[in-house]
Amino acid sequence: MTGLNVIVDLSHHNGNVDLGKAKADGILGVIHKATQGAAYTDPMYAVNKQKAQSAGLLWGAYHFGTGNDVQQQAQHFLSTVQPGPLDLLVLDFETNTQGSSMSLDQARQFVQIVQAHTGRWPGLYSGIYIKTLLGNNHDPILANCWFWLSEYGPVAKVPANWSTWTLWQYTDGAVGPQPHTVDGIGACDRDTFNGTDLMKFWGYEEIATAVNTSSAANS
Questions:
Q1: Which CATH architecture describes the domain 4-54+68-115+132-139+157-218?
Q2: C-alpha to C-alpha distance for 203 and 213, rounded to whole angstroms
Q3: Which of 12, 13, 36, 66 would be 40's cystine partner, CB 3.0–4.6 Å?
């Protein structure tokens, strides 16, 4: 499997997970569903965040976009996550099988609200949905987001809007290349990172630089 295969993405569907065992099995980061639409909060988000922190794992949160009011969705996500500088943030942009789906314009609005609130662009997770809506067109707003590809085949096929993938969800725990399972979790969504410096991607280098700059200014 190409990349650094050390990340899982979870939701309440994964049940009662043991993230200590997951870390011992080589997992370094967890990206968890936080919210969906304008009101839903994943009931395991806070529980698993505490487990991840106790295990010393990197943490991220994603919002499943719907066709609801995008301002309300963004506010719901941000108020639920209360993101710190080391919380990875993602918009899950895919077809909603239980109601209206988020549009391209809504996705643009959502990521701009997150950027305005946090000073950084979130990732955009998508697969066939973004490929169908965008085709080979370029979207200058969404292109600011690092791309998290959902593709369960042996080859990562990236939309023309991005030069490459940053994360690749290569399996849902049932189909796609191996491995599918993680100790302490079982079969699950697994993700590989397109690089070697995972800590820098997660923002740790920026924090260290800011702290060192502040210390130097105050000395």
A1: Alpha-Beta Barrel (3.20)
A2: 16
A3: 36
Every domain of the chain and the residues it spans: 4-54+68-115+132-139+157-218
Residues 6+ apart with CB under 8 A from 116: none
3-class DSSP state of 8? strand
Neighbours of 147 (CB within 10 A): 22
Report the predicted TM-score, pTM, of the whole model to 2 decimal places: 0.93
State the DSSP H helix or E strand holding residue 204, giving kind and residue range, or none if neither. helix 204-218
Q: Where are the beta strands (DSSP E) in 11-92?
A: 29-36, 40-41, 58-64, 87-92
Residues 23 and 20: their CA atoms lie apart, in Å, by 5
CA distance 92 to 214: 35
Helix, strand, coil in percent for the chain, rounding step 5: 35, 25, 40
Say how far apart CA 89 and CA 63 lie, in whole Å: 8
- Spatial distance between the Cα atoms of 47 and 130, rounded to a whole number of angstroms: 31
Over the stretch 36-95, which tens digit does the pLDDT of each residue have? 999 999 999 999 999 999 999 999 999 999 999 999 999 999 999 999 999 999 999 999
Burial of 118 (0-12, 13-18, 19+ CB in 10 A): middle
